[in-house]
């Protein structure tokens, strides 16, 4: 069934005093890893030694078919970014690519990068939503979400940066689709500050 819609994209930029754009890019590591093709693909991507995970993302790579939709894109404990997706009701195997973005921990002439993070879990619902905010002393660098359910599945539909009461963070949402599958959704926010 046709269901035209609009999609809004967000970009989070970063500027660090004492570094030119080219110098900053020289301290950023960008990596990606693609899963094998399956109905519910998932993969995680790490970062190099001496770097701090500051963001990540995903891309679902499906051939023509019913579709394979995102269920998670979030920072795992440690220094990896995990991405998951699934087909729904109709078989539609695909691969998923996880992206990790990291910043060198020690920036010569500037200081040391300290990462902050925040995590909030929604209450259980058919269409759960929540937001998480990070302290005002951190600059937001990345956001993530993870949909959780024991049923046929929850699909992500919202993942956006927000500013609430001068605190940056993430607002996320997921939903069941065609089949009842109440669940929860987790919101993640990552940020950095320079110390020393």
Structure description:
The structure is a single chain. The protein has 196 residues and is mainly beta. It has a single domain, classed as Jelly Rolls, CATH 2.60.120. 3% of the residues lie in helices and 55% in strands. It is built from 1 helix and 13 strands, in the order αβββββββββββββ. The strands form 3 sheets. The protein has a 7-stranded antiparallel sheet, with no helix packed on it. It has a 3-stranded antiparallel sheet with strand order 1-6-3, with no helix packed on it. It has a 3-stranded antiparallel sheet with strand order 9-12-11, with no helix packed on it. β4 and β5 form a beta hairpin. The longest helix is centred in the first third of the chain and has 5 residues. The chain is globular, with a radius of gyration of 18 Å. The N and C termini lie far apart (57 Å). 35% of the residues are buried. The model has no long low-confidence stretch (mean pLDDT 95).
Distance between the termini: 57 Å
Extract low-pLDDT stretches.
Answer: none
Shape: globular
Instruction: Tell me the major beta sheet.
Output: 7 strands, antiparallel
Structural class: mainly beta
Q: Give me the number of helical elements.
A: 1
The CATH class label is Mainly Beta
Give average pLDDT, whole number: 95
Determine the fraction of residues in helical runs and give it as a percent range: under 10%
- Tally of separate domains: 1
**Widest beta sheet: strand line-up:** 2-5-4-10-13-8-7
Based on CA atoms alone, the radius of gyration comes out at 18 Å
* Helix-strand string: HEEEEEEEEEEEEE
Give the CATH architecture.
Sandwich
The share of residues in extended strands comes to over 45%
Total beta strands = 13
CATH fold description: Jelly Rolls
């Amino acid at each position: 069934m046709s269901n035209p819609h609009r999609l809004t994209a967000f970009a989070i930029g970063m500027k660090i005093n004492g570094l030119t754009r080219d110098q900053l890019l020289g301290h950023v590591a960008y990596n990606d890893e693609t899963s094998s093709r399956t109905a519910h693909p998932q993969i995680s991507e790490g970062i190099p030694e001496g770097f701090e995970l500051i963001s990540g993302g995903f891309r679902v790579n499906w051939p023509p078919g019913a579709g394979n939709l995102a269920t998670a894109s979030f920072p795992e404990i440690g220094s990896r970014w995990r991405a998951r997706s699934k087909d729904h009701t109709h078989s539609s195997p695909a691969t998923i690519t996880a992206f990790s973005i990291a910043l060198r921990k020690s920036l010569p002439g500037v200081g040391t990068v300290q990462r902050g993070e925040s995590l909030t879990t929604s209450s259980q619902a058919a269409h759960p939503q929540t937001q998480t905010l990070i302290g005002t002393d951190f600059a937001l660098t990345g956001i993530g979400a993870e949909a959780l359910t024991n049923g046929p599945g929850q699909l992500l539909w919202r993942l956006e940066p927000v500013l609430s009461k001068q605190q940056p963070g993430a607002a996320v949402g997921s939903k069941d689709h065609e089949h009842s599958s109440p669940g929860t959704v987790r919101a993640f926010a990552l940020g950095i500050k320079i110390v020393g």
